[in-house]
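To: structure desk
From: M.T.
Subject: fold request, one chain
Message: Could you run this one when you get a chance? Sequence is below, nothing fancy, just the single chain.
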Amino acid sequence: MNAAGTRPLPDLSVILCVMDRIDEPGELLAIYRRALAPIGNNIEFIYILAETHPRVDDITALSKSGVRVIHMPKLCGEISMLREAIAASTSDLVMTLPPYLQVEPGVLAGLAHDLEGADMVAASRIRAKDSLFNRARASAYRSATRLTGTRFDDLGCRVRLFRRSVLDRVVLRDEHAGYLPIFAEHAGCRVKQVKVPQAELDRRPRSYNLPIYFDGLLDAVSISFLIRFLQKPFRLFGTIGAALFASGFALACVLIIERVMGQSIAERPALLLSVLLLVLGIQVAAVGLIAEVILFTRLPASSIYRVRRIIEHVSEVQPENTPVHAGHEI
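Reply: Done. Structure tokens follow.
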């Protein structure tokens, strides 16, 4: 303790959100502590889980070894748990680790050096020694996430180090926890991706229920929409509406020409199809226009980006060796 009798702020807050999969808590904590020892001795560990979790007693017992344990009344989303844990933390640097080994522990301390000049570091596992099934599944998931235009290779890896202000700038739902690096970069944060070796225990073949894979595909589609068109929905709906309207108009023109040439079109399905395309195109475009109106009138007029640096020009006469331009990062 310092002279004022208060505990010094930790160098790093390590948060473990316990959902379902979990390794032996005591052994895992010892591994993480040894791996992060090069960063400093003043590191706080925070476990957060639902009080209905089957391993709640084992994790609660870790509080005797200096771990802060947070009980939620029921199982909730990972982002909600992460926000609660960050609110209870006291360090400006936050590292999220899964309650099981995903990467080799020896690389964790090195992430602190990778954070220099960035706001977030996202680990990406090197799967060269992974099982064939896991690699095939990861490749399929990576292909699905390409719909978002992301450059990140391993959004399933929960090993991340970031400044606590990052989460304040990100609007994210619980089911989109894996996409935190994408939303952080979209909000103007500097995000680095670091390749790290995969833990041996993480290479064992694992399978999930089919609905989980389907949900992942739907999440990728929704994230793609949110990233590209959240601030400009009329560009999406207007483009689709214009394409439908143009198709209906072209078909109607063909039918009109045929009618002028003496052919009967009254009983042809193409007439109904052309009218349907025209009406549908107008309706889809109208949905996008209504969305634009809602965004303009309901959302605050604030930018999703942030100022990183302000450069000022000093016009007054300055002493010798004083720089003419001065800048500082925000």
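Reply (cont.): Residues 1 and 7 are 5 Å apart (CA to CA). Let me know if you need anything else for the meeting.
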